[in-house]
Amino acid sequence: MSNEARLFQTVARTVRKFLPGMLEANRISLAYLITGILASKAVQLRQVASKVVYPGKETSLVERFRRFLQNENIVVKSEFNPFWELILSALSQSQLVLAIDSTKVGGGCICLMVSVVYKSRALPVCWVVFKGRKGHSSTDIQLALMKTLKSLLPAEQAIILLGDGEFDGSELVTWFEQQTTWRYVCRTANRLLIEHQNDWRTLAEIELAPEEETFLTDTLFTQTGQVGPVNILVVWNNKVKEHWFFVTNFTDPDQARNWYRKRFSIETLFSDVKGRGFNLDKTRIWKPERLYRLIFAVAIAYIFTVFLGVDLIVRGPFEKLFRTDRFYHSLFQLGLSHLNHLLKTCLPIPDLGPLPPPDSFEHVVLAC
Hints:
This protein is of the alpha+beta class. The chain contains 13 helices and 10 strands.
């Protein structure tokens, strides 16, 4: 049996296990798509099809993929939920650290994604795709994604939410304050108004010397849709030589700063599914709803790869493939290597299963 056929069998079992309610034809199409993404490390449909053992013509498989991506009956929000629950089961005993960010995909589209931090990586939770440019998602889009996110989280779960610079609208911060008990740290634009020293001014107008940092408490945020009181963390970014501003409900500036550093894990996710992994940025698909379903397949492939990386550490044979005294590879990179090793040596490929709690094994990446 070929490597591609063995990989398809494993993926097909996984899809059947997690999506028993999906139509069989759709499950098979999804399994072919995930298999091709893993084998080709690409998302261009012809490249994906070339790495799949298919009984018909390769062009027929490409058309099958297109029909799947066009299929309005594939409801990603509900279909992805079993995979999110798999992740949640590994993290449910601790607070969840969630990160929000956007990235360019396809033809003129943006993917706005929420991910959850797991070790040195972020795993996808939910996302939306829309026409636009990076850094400019509307409040309506953001609120819709936040409402979806809230519906996926256990009501009693402690949540820390980390957001980049586009998450600075008063409506969103108001929603955090009124509809959730989440802790949050969101970077905000220096053009926004705050009430400081009994006067409304932009964050950029706060008198600060280079490298000076401060923490403003009990501050009203935005003059038109007043929110607050909130706190504003101001830090100096030495790389770009400018101040960065964060709106937060943390009362300790060191806590806010330390938690925000974890937001950069979502950038590793985007790097993995793009240039360092599946080349999602190379797709020519330009319709948001089709990209939305393509990312569904990519997200499952990503989780499966990270699972294989964890499996390599926990069950081996890590020592046969990598140095054992330190980690130079991410969980995603380890997973790709592990899959390649299993295929080359004709060893069984494990089915996707529960992830262990992140504190149950060691993995600190020294260099990615």
